[in-house]
Design a protein that fits this description.
Blueprint lengths: L4 H21 L4 E7 L1 E17 L2 E5 L4 E3 L9 E2 L4 E6 L8 H47 L5 H42 L10 E4 L4 E6 L5 E3 L4 E6 L4 E8 H4 L7 E5 L7 E8 L4 E4 L5 E11 L14 E18 L4 E3 L2 E8 L2 E13 L2 E6 L6 E4 L11 E4 L2
Parallel strand pairs: 1-22
Antiparallel strand pairs: 1-21, 2-11, 2-16, 3-10, 4-6, 4-9, 5-8, 6-7, 8-10, 11-15, 12-13, 12-16, 13-15, 14-15, 16-20, 17-18, 18-19, 19-20
Length: 399
Amino acid sequence: MHVTGRHIAIAAGLLAAAGVTAWLLVPASVSVETAAVTKGRFAATVDEDGKTRVRERYAVAAPLAGRLSRIRFKVGDQVQVDDAIATITPSPAPLMDPRTRREVEERLGVAEANLERARAVVERAKAQSDHANTDLTRARTLAQQGAATTQALERAELAVHLADRDLRAAEFQNHAAEHEISQMRALLARYGNDGNGHPDSWNVVSPVAGVVLKVAQESETIVQPGTLLLDVGDARDLEVVADVLSTDAVEIRPGADVDIDNWGGEGKLKGRVRRVEPAAFTKVSTLGVEEQRVNVLVDILSPAKQWARLGDGYRVDVQITVLARDEATIVPSGALFRRGEGWNVYVAKGGRAELRQIELLRRSGRFAAVASGLAPGEEVIVYPSDRVAPDVRIAPRSP
């Protein structure tokens, strides 16, 4: 048979058409985003909003009824111990009848007992502080000799830090008790034995040194005993309080490490959980759902000069560590999905998607720790679509 050029062209056309048909019948590759499985330190955290507050806050109230003169102090003003922060002019009527005088004398007795108790607390706090400093000196010596661990040294430093804070708080309580006794004695002395004295004015003094945090009565007005005048505290002695879900609170332990972020300055501040309050309270979320929340108190461990501009009631974000593992296998949380009772991922292998069942250790935010099923260096598909199936062809793209 004679083969002409026309026959060759027809044959070539048929072959080309067959190739195009075969190419069209081959499933197209699914474009996917992949991420590498890594190995390193994994930390599971509880992330919540928090706010700062002065650890020891003192509410100064009116000790008697009368006309309050306009308070000259403003929020942020510095005050010293026994500074006159308000002046009350008593009413012209007798302010102390025999019954009232007896009550003041009894209150003086209670104040004296409180002072003795406060002094005992100060002595105890001093002893604990001295003991903690001695332990720290011993721990540093042992650490230099290689006979103590870094963790033991850190625990000793933390104990000194907490003991100093307790001593400072005890001294504030002692000052407040002395201030209360001075007020009671001055009140008895000013009115004399007949109980019908008419003093020109009564100065309300600050029980501690610090700054004015709140002025409750700015204008001149008539006040009754116990009326709140202003709040005073040491703005350098701050703590952070964060309310977390009760289901998260059970995992948090005193001494847990805390990162304090979005506080307004550079970097993160270091903190440590001091207390998880034992009682929860009900709070309505922004979605209108009632939640049981628990307050977690956090001490700021970073140097005070780093967060010197923080004040009372400032908003911060806290990340409380509840689980930490070194040399953990880490995978993006977006690669995980449920199939049946177990967790699975798609591994990008040889240009195709391989279904792999894994044993999940813990999820936290954008990452998860895997106990088995994956090896560092493998590529997993992140957020796989419904087009991804076992053995399907894939075209990885950069995230």
